Amino acid sequence: ARHWTQLMQACGQHFVMDDKLPLDTLIRLELDKYQDAVTEIVERARAEIKIDQALTKIIGIWGGLTIEYVPFKKTGVNILVQPAEVYEALDDHEVQLQNMMGNRFMGFFEAQITSWKSKLAAVRAVIENWLEVQRQWCSLEAIFIGSEDIREQLPEDAKRFDTIDATFKEQMTDAATTPNPLEACLRDGRDD
Questions:
Q1: What span, in angstroms and rounded, lies between the C-alpha atoms of 84 and 97?
Q2: Mind listing the pLDDT tens digit for each residue in 90-139?
Q3: How far is it, in rounded angstroms, from Cα 37 to Cα 15?
Q4: What is the pTM of this model?
Q5: Which of 5, 74, 128, 173 has its CA 20 to 30 A from that of 187?
């Protein structure tokens, strides 16, 4: 609709764009007199439909992506599985969004493109932090939970680990109920 409005402005005439618009109305507009403006509008419409379709595809894919969790030993804690499919989507979509940002016709979609770039950057950062914290927790869990001797030898560290352990388990219990990576990663407090 916005392109038809631009076309009406370019030729200085008004018409109702609907299924009943006769071809002769378009012919009477003498669009050939406004060739440069019409060419620009058509080029913009073609570029914008490609951006719109690409954004719609990205949004659809992220709506259907899932991350998996598996039980860690016999702790009752589900941990995040390395999300290969999510990383693949991140790599592909971050490049696509960057290319869209370089398109001179991205103006209408700029806020949406910028928003998705930010979301995907946050998802990447959270997953990387999450996997690192998880790796460290898995190592420390074996040391502090599995060995009473170490707990007695390092009481301050054991107390600190107990606090971290409780927080990590709480986060993982919440995360395991959220299979969508956007929802899981962008939840308030997840990155912290």
A1: 20
A2: 999 999 999 999 999 999 999 999 999 999 999 999 999 999 999 999 99
A3: 17
A4: 0.85
A5: 74
